[in-house]
Amino acid sequence: MLTRQQKAAIIVRFLLNEGADVPLTDLPDHMQARLTTQMGSMRYVDRTTLADVVAEFAQELEAMGLVFPHGVSGALSALDGRISPQTAARLRKEAGVRQFGDPWSQVCNAEPERLFPILETESAEVAAVMLSKLEVARAADLLGRMPGPAARQVALEMSRTASVTPEAVDRIGLSLAAQLHERPETAFEDGPDQRIGAILNFSPAATRDDVLSGLDENDESFARLVRKAIFTFINIPARVAPVDVPKLTRDVEQAALVTALKAAQDSGGELADAADYVLSNLSGRMADTLREEISESGPVKTKDGEEAMTAVINAIRTLEANGEIILILAEGDEDENEA
Fold first, then answer.
1. What is d(CA 225, CA 242) in angstroms, rounded to the nearest whole number?
2. CA-to-CA distance for 210 and 267, rounded, in angstroms?
3. Does residue 72 sit within a domain?
4. Are 25 and 109 contained in the same domain?
5. Is residue 88 part of a domain?
6. Segments forming the whole domain that contains residue 248
7. CA separation (Å) from 181 to 82, 108, 178, 184?
8. Are the beta carbons of 99 and 77 closer than 8 angstroms?
């Protein structure tokens, strides 16, 4: 009479012989160990016994009406989006489950920008294990970002990783993966620079200049980020490709475009350069028509000019959001992306 453990070994062996992908890693460690030991102790099963075991297994499968997820980890996966994030986070922490799969796979696939803050706070021993598990290029990138003394200490600890047990590496992986997923919830999706930049896009030029001057005095680095987030009429030559300029005449009323170009030309400087850029990249007939209307129009009030220029910027943003144009990266963003 075969035990259930022996029958399980027979079924697993049969499925593997048939080329099935059996996710045994989902089983608890002790069950994986018992199954492996049982398979190692068995030698031969005749066809009749195999057929009986397979038939019994098939009957048990057919008799199943409902299968619940295994453990708290499986239950959290099944209830994802149906219980509050706070409750799910608390249950994960209390149960210590592998909610997000193989921890080292997550660590190795994480961006260096997310790994480096963790690397800075961990001990040299943990950092050495982390770098040992990463691919060489990514490990070299992270090591190069560390201060000299810290990098040397980590390199020294790597020489001692030969004695680290698999269990210790597994625990370190779980801890690092948990830190990757323990980013606090925030009330805003966009960063502060994006939010203030969006507000300043719609603000009068005087207000925008005054705010940026104040930011320069108090936080120069933040002011630089805000300037990158700002997109105004002045930025059109640097951000809108020549081939995309004609699309503005379709999405902006001609009267508003004339007002915007007239106000920009009257203001002079960079605004006038932006107006010339728009006109020079339109078809000859359209450009001539606009130039004629501009020359015939009277002085433009500051408020009306700013509203017209904002309408042009809104049209550009809409075209970008719809995927009809791709804005050129602001100066400095190219270097950051390459880094």
1. 26
2. 18
3. no
4. no
5. no
6. 231-338
7. 19, 14, 5, 9
8. yes
- Tokens 């987030």 sit on residue: 229
For residue 137, give the CATH number of its domain. Answer: 1.10.220.30
Q: Is residue 26 part of a domain?
A: yes
Same-domain check for residues 169 and 237: no
pLDDT at 184 over 60: no
For the cut 90, the answer to whether the pLDDT of residue 260 exceeds it is yes
Count of domains forming the chain: 3
Q: Are residues 158 and 247 in the same domain?
A: no
Where does a domain end: 148, 181, 214?
A: 181
Are residues 104 and 48 part of one domain? no
In a domain, residue 80? The reply is no
pLDDT band at 25 (very low <50, low <70, confident <90, very high): confident
Q: What is the pLDDT of residues 113-159, one digit of tens each?
A: 889 888 888 999 999 999 999 999 889 989 988 888 888 999 999 88
pTM beyond 0.70 = no
